[in-house]
Design goal:
Blueprint lengths: L1 E7 L6 E8 L11 E11 L5 E12 L2 H4 L3 H11 L4 H8 L3 H15 L4 H10 L4
Antiparallel strand pairs: 1-2, 3-4
Helix pairs in contact: 2-4, 2-5, 3-4
């Protein structure tokens, strides 16, 4: 686990000073299949109450095979790149809409994408389609 903090300039908003700590939590971690990485922005309001906003959220797989898309996920990704909705994909593959949505969600997690547009870009860049 890593915790970093920055002191920023009030004029420019750019970092002036950074400090952080790193803690090994591998012995207490129960799910060893992936590591989640968050980047958060911390700010205080007028009442000096702390608020955190997630800037980025990524998942990195410990086992390379866990990050690979299954054959079915690749099929679904192909249909998504063609503009198919989850309902259309479900009908095409003879699966439930819920199953199609679950595959779609898993593809998002494995590729660290936020939406279908990013998934299509990922598929093209990595020659998956």
């Amino acid at each position: 686990m890593q915790k970093s903090s920055f002191i920023t300039s009030k004029k420019t908003g750019l970092p002036l000073l950074a400090f952080g700590s790193l803690t090994d939590i591998s012995q207490i971690q129960h799910d060893e299949s992936y590591v989640t990485h968050f980047i958060e922005k911390t700010h205080w309001d007028k009442n000096k109450l702390q608020h955190k906003t997630t800037v980025a959220h990524n998942r990195f797989y410990v086992n390379e095979n866990d990050a690979k898309l299954t054959k079915q996920e690749k099929n679904i990704l192909g249909y998504l790149t063609e503009g198919f909705s989850s309902k259309m994909i479900a009908e095409k593959l003879n699966i439930s809409v819920n199953t199609a949505n679950n595959h779609r969600h898993n593809i998002l997690k494995k590729t660290n994408c936020k939406n279908v547009a990013q998934m299509v870009t990922f598929a093209v860049k990595n020659k998956l389609i």
